[in-house]
Amino acid sequence: AGRVGEDDPMSELEPSYDPETLREVYSDPAQVRARIDELRAEIRDAPDEVGELLARGELVDLLRAIGDLDEAGAEAERAVDRSVLAGTAAQQHLARVRGAQVLQWRGEFAESNLAFTELVHAAGQFGPVVAAFTHEQAGKNSYDQGDFAAARDQFGRALALRQEFELPEDQIASARTALDAARRRAGEDTR
User: Fold this and answer.
1) Mean pLDDT of 154-176
2) Which among 64, 24, 19, 25 is positioned nearest to 179, based on CA atoms?
3) Does residue 100 register a pLDDT over 70?
4) DSSP string, 101-132
5) Buried b (16+ CB within 10 A) or exposed e, 115-141
6) pTM of the entire structure?
7) Backbone φ and ψ of 6, nearest 5°
8) Which of 57, 92, 126, 163 is the most buried (most CB within 10 A)?
9) How far apart are CA 28 and CA 15, in angstroms?
10) Residue of 114, 129, 137 lying closest to 161 (CA atoms)
């Protein structure tokens, strides 16, 4: 669904975001499962590595969102392995972000914290879109742990990058919503 780094048209599946958890929510689980089946076929029949990497990235996101974290983790590992063999440095980075998200959703915070620390450190070399995406995801990792000050800082960085480089309004809105949620949870005034 219009993921960072993809050139494919946007998927019909667009999540909403829970304003308290900041996690993706899909209104039609059957449609998500059908898309997962389609993605598995796309991966199997991909004409090239780029098509496979894009499909695998979306597959990881959807599996994670529906709570199939074991399968999401296995697919994330495959995506990282495949991106190392055939992807660009940015594709490798994004595959690692997805893997860190799975660790986060599993509650494996020692591992996700380490992964996001490394990813945030490296993100700037891939341009503002990837850097902002990485900061936002790192912020969600902190948010899930109740570290709202760290989450606020990461969301603020994502928002600043998106505004400075005039990135799409939906990306700016996403960072702003996350920043407001972290401020609320930290007891700060969001006005």
Assistant:
1) 98
2) 19
3) yes
4) HHHHHHT-HHHHHHHHHHHHHHHGGG-HHHHH
5) bbeebbebbeebebbbbbbbbbbbbbb
6) 0.91
7) -95, 145
8) 57
9) 10
10) 129
Tokens for 146, please give them. Answer: 């109740």
Mean pLDDT (the chain) is 93
Q: Hey, what are 154's tokens? A: 């990461």
Instruction: Report residue 13's pLDDT band, with 50, 70 and 90 as the boundaries.
Output: confident
Residue 108 has, within 13 A of its CA and on its CB side, a CA count of 14
Q: Do residues 106 and 69 make contact, with C-beta atoms less than 8 angstroms apart?
A: yes
Residues in the chain: 191
Distances (CA, A) of 123 to 2, 65, 117, 158: 19, 24, 10, 11
CA–CA gap between residue 54 and residue 9 (Å, rounded): 11
C-alpha–C-alpha distance, residues 58 and 63, integer Å: 9
Q: How far is Cα 164 from Cα 35, in angstroms, rounded to an integer?
A: 35
Report the C-alpha gap between 113 and 120 in whole angstroms: 10
Secondary structure element (H or E) that encloses residue 24, with its range: strand 24-25
DSSP reduced 3-state for 185: helix
**Beta carbons of 64 and 23 less than 8 angstroms apart:** no
pLDDT at 188: 83
